[in-house]
């Protein structure tokens, strides 16, 4: 059975999310970043704005550029939604980075089989372009985002095909045409060849993949070690690395950084506690959405002198209740704040996860039942009106101190990991 791998890349992801959040900037040059350009819209790209470019240079090239700090929480929600759409077409979806995914369409189920169209030029093979159009349309319908897609028999071919499909297009490389497709790419496009490796190849006159074919297989091994074999295979479209389904959630974390200010009352304990409870609320909401329970709560801080500290505590029974987890987190924060150095980063992790149905009931579960109904109602309100519709517990101390909107508090640098 011929392997069929789809690579999906979200076009101008961070900038596109900003345009979706604020329709007033649709069609205008937008950049996301806080010092350098992390993402830019295609309107900004046409004005010479590039990723990793200093913002002052971007503004020089495009004075009307609209610069936004971005909202990592909102971006994460969009990324998860795209992954959910892709899993409607295949059970094997690998989330590789912020904005790209691999999907294994080998041996596709019947719903996909029916979408296969006429044979390609290679005998016995049928195109998956029609299926890709369906995926593209469903992503657009459910998220508003545009995606570029590459189809090939290997991860390398599929990924490079996507570069030919941007923005918003589809590029399919039929089986047997991999070498022809790869030939004219620069060696910098081959995964596994970093800047130093490229420099070494350039010194001996190897600039393109076609020229890389002339390098002896053993010489590549001697020059680049174990990567040499991978490079030899990838540049010929022969690599067999599988698509790996994104692992089951092992923990749920929320973290942010901020600029601390001197507070004679003890490092702004009220602010830190409110921020911690807000992050915990975010994590516990995700916990309930995934129908999981957690036994362990971890709190971590990083101070302005670079020193990090962490404490964890396990509860007797696994839970998804925000109030119980928040109490444990607050107690841990009190222990960590014994160090009299200002804090720059605060984070919380819910670990030791187990399926919700695994919890054993108790004789006196009336309070638990009432709290479960409360948090179910809270989650329902937030799904309908946005996470920011309700602020719980000590997180109320952040009102007036951090920007607040339908999606919650605007954090400076959220890091949303699982």
CATH superfamily of the largest domain: Reverse transcriptase/Diguanylate cyclase domain
Number of strands: 15
State the order of secondary-structure elements, H for helix, E for strand. Answer: EHEEHHEHEEHHEHEHHHHHEHEEHEHEEE
* Total domain units: 3
Most strands sheet: 5 strands, mixed
Taking Cα atoms only, what radius of gyration do you get, to the nearest Å? 25 Å
CATH architecture term of the largest domain: 2-Layer Sandwich
Give the CA-CA distance, first to last residue.
34 Å
Mean pLDDT: 86
Overall 3D form: globular
| Low-pLDDT residue intervals, each spanning 5 or more residues | 118-124
> In terms of structural class, how would the helical and strand content be classed?
alpha+beta
DSSP summary: helix tally: 15
By CATH reckoning, the class of the largest domain would read Alpha Beta
Strand content: 15-25%
What portion of residues is helical? 25-40%
Q: List the strand order in the largest sheet.
A: 5-6-1-7-8
The name of the CATH topology of the largest domain is Alpha-Beta Plaits
Polypeptide structure, described:
The chain has 15 helices and 15 strands. The protein is of the alpha+beta class and 418 residues long. The protein has 3 domains: 5-172, 2-Layer Sandwich (Alpha-Beta Plaits), CATH 3.30.70; 186-230, Orthogonal Bundle (DNA polymerase, domain 1), CATH 1.10.150; 252-417, Dna Ligase, domain 1. Strand 2 and strand 3 (39-40) form a beta hairpin.
